């Protein structure tokens, strides 16, 4: 019987004769209040799914007659207050799911009779105050989920009888103050999750008896002050998570006995002042996360013994002044994160010994003045992030020895120049120099970066010119020059960038002219280039997108080039009236009568359109966007064709938007074209249309 999602079902019929019923699915019957007592007659039932019956208040005691039931799913029965004691008769039940039964206050002691139960889920039972001691009778139990039971204060000592338990999840039990010492009897336990037990002050010494434990999660145990020394007995432990244990001051020296530990998480342990030297005994450790340990002043020399370490995260260790020279012994290290280590002044020269390092993140190390020459020995380094290193004045010439793919120097506001050796980074794909406000010029060798795809120079306010060698970057796809307020011109060689797709010139306030740009260009953004007058270029890419917002000094020829560019996208430029280029114009309203000649009307009609928007009201929101909806009416036949422009963004007054449209199947030469804008706060002020022939596309792109 499958009645799932019957949201209006309030009661079931009498099931007295349903002795052969094998399956009953009632999931998400959200109006069902109770089950009939006759359900106890369905003694052959194999599956009873009641999950999501959020109005169900109780189960009939006859449920205990279903002694062969292999699974009972009550997940999400949020109105269920209690279980009948007869539940204990379901002795063959291997799995019981009570997850999300948030009104359930207690469990009957008979629950302990479920001796074949292997998996018990009742996380999210937020009203449950205690567990019956009989829970210790569930000797077959392997999985016990008690997650997010926020009212649970203690665990009965009988839990220690669950000697076959492999997984115990108590995460989010925020009122739990302590664990019973009997927890140490769970000798087969492999995973213990206590994360989010924010009232837990300490762990019992007996925790050290869990010799088969492989995973221990204590993250967000914000009241935990220390770990017992017996923690060192967990010789099979592979993962220990102590992240956000904000009251933890120190680790016991016995932590060094965890010789099989592979992952140690101590992130956001903001009270942790030091690490024991025994940490160096964790020779199988692969990941050590100390990010956000803001009180940590130094690392022990023994850290260099972690020869199998692959990831070391020291981000936001804001009190860390230096790294020990022994850091260079971590020859298998692949990732080193030091971002926001704001007190770090220098790196030891031994850093150059990390020959397998692939990623080095030094972003936000605002006190870092220089990099050691040995940095050039990191021949496997692919990513170097120095963004926000505001005190960094120069890079060592050895930087050119690297095989970098990504170099981020954004926000290095004290960086005056780049070494010419930067041109040796022939595998570099992304170079970010945005915000390098003291950078006056780029070395000629920049043109050697033949595999570079992205170059960011935004906010390089002291940069006066680009070297002509920039034209050698034949694989460059994106060039960002926004807010380069000292840049007067672009080199003519920029036209050689045959793969350039995006050029950002926003707020290049001194830029006077643009040279011939590459034909590949598909996006040109030149907002607020207030000195821009001339365009010595055309835009043949049929998908090009042009934005010349607030470029009021553009001369007539430059404006004509933009307006007459053929594109399947749109162009945008300042203007207060539709240009004469558009054969048919309306200065009020949004309707045009158009008369075509036979050449314009074959199998379809193509038009170039232009609009000027008017705001209904005073406030202009630059984040607004919208589309133009056009209706083409054939005067003779009365047939209508609906068309739509590309999405226009941003919406501004005193700006022209041009785009192309095609009306397929139009045969009449006399048309009425009506413009409407799809935003209530905007309307069409002026509009224009120019019919296009096939050859017009080529004519326009050659202007």
Automatic annotation (TrEMBL):
Domain Disease resistance R13L4/SHOC-2-like LRR: 192-292, 359-460
Gene3D superfamilies for the chain: Ribonuclease Inhibitor (3.80.10.10)
Segment forming the signal sequence: none
C-JID domain span: 573-660
Swiss-Prot/TrEMBL keywords: Leucine-rich repeat, Repeat
Top-level taxon: Eukaryota
Pfam families in alphabetical order: C-JID, LRR_1, LRR_14
The keyword Cytoplasm appears for this protein: no
Identification of the protein by name: Putative disease resistance protein
């Amino acid at each position: 019987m499958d009645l799932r999602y019957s949201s209006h079902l309030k009661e079931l019929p009498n099931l007295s004769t349903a002795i052969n019923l094998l399956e009953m699915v009632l999931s998400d019957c959200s109006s069902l209040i109770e089950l009939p007592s006759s359900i106890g007659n369905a003694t052959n039932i194999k599956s009873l799914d009641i999950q999501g019956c959020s109005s169900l208040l109780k189960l009939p005691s006859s449920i205990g007659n279903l002694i062969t039931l292999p699974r009972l799913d009550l997940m999400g029965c949020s109105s269920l207050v209690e279980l009948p004691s007869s539940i204990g008769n379901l002795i063959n039940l291997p799995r019981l799911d009570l997850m999300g039964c948030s009104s359930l206050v207690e469990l009957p002691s008979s629950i302990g009779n479920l001796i074949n139960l292997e998996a018990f889920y009742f996380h999210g039972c937020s009203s449950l105050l205690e567990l019956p001691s009989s829970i210790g009778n569930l000797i077959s139990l392997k999985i016990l989920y008690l997650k997010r039971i926020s009212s649970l204060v203690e665990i009965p000592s009988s839990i220690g009888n669950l000697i076959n338990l492999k997984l115990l999840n108590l995460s989010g039990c925020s009122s739990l103050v302590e664990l019973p010492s009997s927890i140490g009897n769970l000798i087969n336990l492999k995973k213990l999750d206590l994360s989010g037990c924010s009232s837990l002050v300490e762990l019992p010494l007996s925790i050290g008896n869990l010799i088969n434990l492989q995973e221990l999660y204590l993250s967000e145990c914000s009241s935990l002050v220390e770990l017992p020394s017996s923690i060192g007995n967990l010789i099979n432990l592979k993962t220990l998570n102590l992240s956000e244990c904000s009251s933890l001051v120190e680790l016991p020296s016995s932590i060094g006995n965890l010789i099989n530990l592979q992952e140690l998480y101590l992130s956001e342990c903001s009270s942790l002042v030091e690490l024991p030297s025994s940490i160096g005994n964790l020779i199988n450790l692969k990941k050590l996360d100390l990010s956000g340990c803001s009180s940590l002043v130094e690392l022990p020399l023994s850290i260099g013994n972690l020869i199998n370490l692959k990831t070391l995260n020291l981000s936001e260790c804001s009190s860390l002044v230096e790294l020990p020279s022994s850091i260079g012994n971590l020859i298998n290290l692949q990732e080193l994160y030091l971002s926001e280590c704001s007190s770090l002044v220098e790196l030891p020269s031994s850093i150059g010994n990390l020959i397998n390092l692939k990623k080095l993140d030094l972003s936000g190390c605002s006190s870092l003045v220089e990099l050691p020459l040995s940095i050039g020995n990191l021949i496997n380094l692919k990513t170097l992030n120095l963004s926000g290193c505001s005190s960094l004045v120069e890079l060592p010439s050895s930087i050119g020895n690297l095989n970098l793919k990504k170099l981020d120097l954004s926000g290095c506001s004290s960086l005056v120049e780049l070494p010419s050796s930067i041109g040796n980074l022939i595998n570099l794909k992304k170079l970010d120099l945005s915000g390098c406000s003291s950078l006056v010029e780029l070395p000629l060798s920049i043109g050697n970066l033949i595999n570079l795809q992205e170059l960011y120079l935004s906010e390089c306010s002291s940069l006066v010119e680009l070297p002509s060698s920039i034209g050698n970057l034949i694989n460059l796809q994106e060039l960002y020059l926004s807010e380069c307020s000292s840049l007067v011109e672009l080199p003519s060689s920029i036209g050689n960038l045959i793969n350039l797709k995006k050029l950002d010139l926003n707020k290049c306030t001194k830029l006077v002219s643009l040279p011939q740009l590459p034909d590949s260009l598909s996006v040109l953004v030149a907002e607020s280039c207030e000195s821009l007058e001339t365009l010595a270029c055309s835009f043949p890419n049929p998908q090009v997108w042009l934005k010349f917002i607030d470029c009021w000094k553009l001369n007539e020829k430059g404006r004509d080039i933009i307006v007459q560019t053929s594109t399947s996208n749109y162009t945008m430029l300042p203007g207060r009236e539709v240009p004469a280029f558009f054969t048919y114009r309306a200065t009020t309203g949004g309707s045009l009568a158009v008369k075509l000649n036979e050449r314009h009307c074959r199998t379809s009609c193509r038009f170039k359109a232009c609009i000027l928007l008017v705001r209904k009201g005073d406030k202009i929101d630059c984040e607004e966007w919208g589309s133009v909806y056009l209706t083409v009416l054939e005067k003779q036949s009365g047939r209508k064709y609906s068309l739509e422009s590309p999405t226009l963004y941003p919406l501004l007054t005193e700006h022209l938007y041009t785009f192309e449209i095609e009306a397929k199947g139009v045969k009449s030469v006399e048309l009425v074209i009506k413009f409407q804008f799809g935003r209530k706060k905007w309307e069409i002020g002026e509009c224009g249309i120019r019919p296009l022939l096939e050859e017009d596309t080529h004519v326009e792109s050659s202007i």
